[in-house]
Design brief:
Layout lengths: L20 E3 L2 E3 L5 H9 L4 H13 L2
Antiparallel strand pairs: 1-2
Length: 61
């Protein structure tokens, strides 16, 4: 989820960023702000986008 926290969705527990979490049959993935990921990529970095890509591969395998 971009721009949302677990608490904003009504969860009463913490979910770490870049950790796919399944709750009641739905997989949630909380990540950094999309603009932060974009700006890092524009600067030549790959840490955030790489973490997002790895999680997406895990979710959709």
């Amino acid at each position: 989820m971009f721009w949302r926290t677990p608490a904003q969705l009504g969860f009463h527990f913490e979910i770490p960023l870049y950790y796919p979490h399944k709750h009641q049959g739905v997989t949630y993935l909380f990540v950094d702000d999309l603009m932060a990921i974009y700006e890092e990529r524009q600067a030549g970095g790959k840490k955030l986008s790489g973490a997002l890509w790895k999680c997406m591969q895990e979710i959709f395998k």
